[in-house]
């Protein structure tokens, strides 16, 4: 099966033990051309940062700061106006579509399904980039899909219908489909949005573990300052299309900076584990 | 976890193929001239094994001159319209899409009428004109149905309704004013029937059917992903624009092909793919071939009813499909709205 050859590709790309730069963003910028007269033109960047395998990186910023735009650039859905974005040494916008899908997986907010689909069918879609046209899924594809489901703890859901899952369950299944792609870079667009606090912590723990175990670089767009501080290795702080700072949460979470960006009175407290905590101030 | 296999596709298609064969034999049996099923099988087998001389001339006439051409036409039309419907449903991400409801069939009929008026003798011209009419209509309906950058179900269906009534009016206008109106009546182009097999009864019509169904089939695993979301499909490595162009051209071709020989038969493209989804699931790698076969079965049986229920008078087959199709359409629409 052709998938046997390509599925070993991620192993070939990585040298055991070495830290590996998965994602390299160099002076990337983007200009959003308004299609409607009402929408303002938005410019992003230039932005530079790197993410290594094992790393969990948060993209933080208030609404309309360019988080999602940055994500579409990283995912290769849009081509940067200038600069370069490389995943495993290849420029993302130059990659063939299927090759790109073998390296980058994007978890977006769920879209409406037109026809009912079982969980396992949905997760198997993640194997698409490894198949040829019309190819029927091999046993190996099922194995990868099964592993992906197990990794997110969604094994018991496999025969359920997608439209009968709760928000948290659906989130895990969507994540499983992305894992079935065996990517080097895992991108998540506001994955905590519809989850309760327990679900949020569970998801971030899971992402942390996935990054540690699988040598992915994981990038998460989020509003949750405290969750990002607790679980992420690094933080990219965006404000009005500009990248203000990149670094560990301790380096980025400075009271004046956060207050300016989020336009709210805040307090930053350094905890003993070296991770800052943000406290909202009512008055 | 039991993914779809080529074996399952082959088995299901074989079963549907057998059902189609049974439907064809029953349809051959029914009619004014009495002929028994063993006689029909004998007539078919003898020709198949190359001994046509052993077939009595009466049987030959009834089977090969009268009933079979009409049945073959039904197979062509049913397979084309169903596959086109399944294609449009994926392309527009709309489970209620159907060539007739969207006005694509009316556009094809208009194209066919114009070609008959301008160049009645040119071979293949009517099919090409019907294809152009279908392609033009679906493009127009698609752009009318867009709101704020994406296709909205209700707006799209309204655009379809508008297209149907506008194009029907143009057809009526042309049919009443054009000189040389001997090319089939208005009812044929607006309702559709199989009573008059096409003037050019050649194999290339079936070749077009195979090309159309085949091209959509090559995109079927891409369509599976497009149905779960275009953006997501793009991100999973699907070349969405290429797939859309292939399906758009092929579905227009199939609609044009069907309408050019049978007029605008409605609801087949809606009924059959939904029925097949209920029976075999919504994987397009199975849905496309089963829709083609199921459409053939449906039209063969519908035409059988159309020419037998009030015999010796014949109903247009389009009336039969609309009788069944319209209530199903309402049901599907209400279920979606709920």
Task: Report mean pLDDT of chain B, rounded to a whole number.
Answer: 86
Task: Give the overall shape of chain A.
Answer: globular
- Rg on CA atoms of chain A, Å: 19 Å
What are the low-pLDDT stretches of chain B, counting only 5+ consecutive residues below 50?
none
Task: State the order of secondary-structure elements of chain A, H for helix, E for strand.
Answer: HHEEEHEEHEHHHEHEHEEHHEE
Radius of gyration of chain B: 20 Å
Number of strands of chain B: 2
Helix content, binned percent of chain B? over 70%
Q: What is the count of β-strands of chain A?
A: 12
**CATH-assigned fold name of chain A:** Rossmann fold
Q: What's the oligomerization state?
A: heterodimer
Amount of helix of chain A: 25-40%
Low-confidence stretches of chain A: 1-17
CATH class of chain A: Alpha Beta
Strand fraction of chain A equals: 25-35%
Brief account:
The complex is a heterodimer of chains A (283) and B (338). Chain A has helices at 2-7, 9-13, 67-75, 97-103, 119-124, 139-151, 167-180, 197-214, 225-231, 249-252, 255-262, and strands at residues 21-32, 42-52, 56-60, 82-87, 90-91, 104-107, 185-189, 217-222, 234-239, 242-247, 266-270, 276-280. Chain A is an alpha/beta fold and 283 residues long.
């Amino acid at each position: 099966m052709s998938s046997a050859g390509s599925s070993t590709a991620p192993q070939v790309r990585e040298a055991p033990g070495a830290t590996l730069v998965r994602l390299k963003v160099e002076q990337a910028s983007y200009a959003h051309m308004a299609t409607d007269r009402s929408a303002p033109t938005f410019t992003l960047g230039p932005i530079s940062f790197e993410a290594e395998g094992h790393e969990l990186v948060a993209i933080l910023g208030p609404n309309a700061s360019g988080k999602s735009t940055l994500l579409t650039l990283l995912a290769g859905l849009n081509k940067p106006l200038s600069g370069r974005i490389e995943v495993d040494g290849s420029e993302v916008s130059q990659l063939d579509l299927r090759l790109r899908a073998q390296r980058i997986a994007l978890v977006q907010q769920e879209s409406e399904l037109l026809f009912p689909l079982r969980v396992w069918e949905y997760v198997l879609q993640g194997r698409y980039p490894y198949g040829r046209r019309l190819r029927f899924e091999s046993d190996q594809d099922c194995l990868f899909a099964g592993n992906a489901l197990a990794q997110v703890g969604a094994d018991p859901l496999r025969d359920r219908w997608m439209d009968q899952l709760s928000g948290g369950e659906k989130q895990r299944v969507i994540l499983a489909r992305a894992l079935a792609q065996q990517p080097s870079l895992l991108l998540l667009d506001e994955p905590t949005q519809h989850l309760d606090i327990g679900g949020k912590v569970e998801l971030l723990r899971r992402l942390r573990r996935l990054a540690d175990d699988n040598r992915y670089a994981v990038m998460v767009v989020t509003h949750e300052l405290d969750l990002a501080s607790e679980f992420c290795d690094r933080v990219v702080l965006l404000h009005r299309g500009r990248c203000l700072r990149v670094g560990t949460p301790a380096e980025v979470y400075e009271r004046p900076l956060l207050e300016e960006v989020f336009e709210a009175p805040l307090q930053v407290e350094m905890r003993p584990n070296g991770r800052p905590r943000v406290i909202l101030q009512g008055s | 976890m039991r993914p779809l296999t080529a074996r399952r596709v082959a088995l299901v298609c074989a079963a549907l193929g057998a059902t189609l064969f049974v439907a064809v034999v029953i349809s051959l049996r029914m009619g004014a001239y009495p002929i028994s099923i063993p006689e029909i099988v004998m007539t078919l087998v003898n020709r198949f094994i190359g001994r046509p001389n052993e077939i009595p001339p009466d049987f030959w006439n009834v089977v090969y001159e009268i009933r079979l051409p009409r049945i073959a036409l039904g197979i062509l039309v049913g397979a084309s319209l169903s596959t086109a419907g399944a294609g449009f449903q994926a392309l527009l991400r709309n489970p209620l899409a159907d060539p007739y409801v969207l006005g694509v069939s009316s556009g094809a009929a208009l194209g066919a009428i114009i070609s008959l008026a301008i160049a009645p003798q040119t071979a293949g011209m009517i099919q090409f004109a019907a294809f152009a009419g279908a392609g033009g209509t679906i493009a127009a309906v698609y752009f009318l149905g867009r709101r704020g950058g994406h296709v909205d179900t209700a707006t799209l269906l309204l655009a379809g309704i508008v297209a149907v009534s506008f194009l029907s009016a143009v057809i009526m206008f042309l049919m009443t004013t054009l000189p040389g109106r001997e090319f089939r009546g208005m009812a044929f182009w607006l309702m559709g029937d199989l009573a008059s097999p096409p003037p050019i009864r050649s194999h290339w019509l079936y070749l077009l059917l195979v090309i159309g169904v085949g091209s959509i089939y090559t995109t079927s695993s891409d369509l599976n992903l497009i149905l779960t979301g275009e953006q997501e499909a793009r991100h999973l490595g699907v070349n969405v624009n290429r797939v859309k162009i292939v399906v758009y051209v092929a579905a227009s071709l199939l609609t044009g092909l069907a309408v050019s020989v049978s007029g605008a038969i409605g609801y087949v493209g809606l009924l059959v793919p939904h029925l097949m989804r209920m029976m075999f699931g919504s994987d397009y790698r199975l849905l496309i071939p089963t829709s083609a076969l199921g459409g053939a079965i449906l039209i063969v049986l519908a035409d059988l009813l159309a020419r037998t229920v009030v015999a010796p008078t014949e109903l247009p087959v389009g009336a039969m499909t609309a009788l069944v199709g319209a209530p199903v359409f309402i049901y599907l629409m209400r279920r979606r709205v709920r």
